[in-house]
Amino acid sequence: MCSSFLFCNNLPDFLFFLTAECHTENEIKARDPIRCRECGYRIMYKKRTKRLVVFDAR
Prior knowledge:
The structure is a single chain. The protein is mainly beta. 0% of the residues lie in helices and 24% in strands. It has no helices and three strands. A hairpin with a 5-residue loop joins strand 1 and strand 2 (25-29). Its main location: nucleus. It is found in: Nucleus. InterPro entries: RNAP_P/RPABC4 (IPR006591), RPABC4 (IPR039747), RPABC4/Spt4 (IPR029040).
């Protein structure tokens, strides 16, 4: 685990999003506009992770 969030080098340069209109998968970098490359639609959904996510109930 990294000691500081800002200095972690194992973070991806882009994230994958699905377009709400045409359901295509787009990779968006930090400074890219939020827009589908196929249809130009601006509503995007972040893809789910394939990692196991565990929440502790208290």
